[in-house]
18S rRNA factor 2 (Hypsizygus marmoreus), 271 residues
Amino acid sequence: MSDSEAGPSRVRNSSDVEEPEHSHEGEENSLERGELADGMDPEGFAGPSEKVVKPLTREALAAFKAMQDRAGVIYISRIPPGMRPTKVRHLMSAYGEIGRVYLQQEDAKRAYLRRKYTSTKKAHFTEGWVEFKDKKIARSVAEMLNAQPIGGKKGTRWRDDVWTMKYLPKFKWNMLTEQVAHEAAIHTAKLRVELSQSRSEQQDYLKNVELARVLEKRAEKKREKGEELQLKPLKERPYKRPAEGKEEGSERPKKKKISDGELNTVLSSVF
């Protein structure tokens, strides 16, 4: 996400007012794609109103960076079932000016089981991040609303649900986009490894099936000729039992005996 694409510093271009409607739709789609990092789900994003972007001057860029430094991010660890990003944005905007909101969808396996065994088919979100334009307001809102009921009018769907949130000091929105992109890259790499592993296992299985088919065909031909397929047993080497009183590996070289004549000859030469 580049600095020129993000944030509330967007200005509407007056020359775009007379363009046809389909051009606006294309611009809005491209802007929405520019707001999202790789791995971010568009359904979980609720940013500021879409506006045409003009190139930023140095002064405008410095002002935008200062505005980003003043912003603060709140982390919501649990999103009530059925609550969407627009509703979270609406509830949080009652306490201060909101920048961007992003909610993370539940994992695919959990969503599949929920749709299979329940009547709710819409996407559910598990956690979320809300950007306030003022970090002081973000901190005070997190301290005030944490572990408190959402409230609202009687009969409201989420009236009795409880907020679970905390302020993230020194955390900026670009860190979130980098984190989401990193997790998406890891997930893609894992899927690639699993697919490669599955492909190699499938190839080995097909090779074994083909080999079994060939062997079965050969055996069938031999049976047709009246020959029986016999497996030759492995020849075993005969085991030699060591002689009694001797152990394997304990044989020693015999000493050569000296005769009496040789002994006398040696003694006479000495004395």
The first helix runs from residue 21 to 35. The two ends are 110 Å apart (CA to CA).
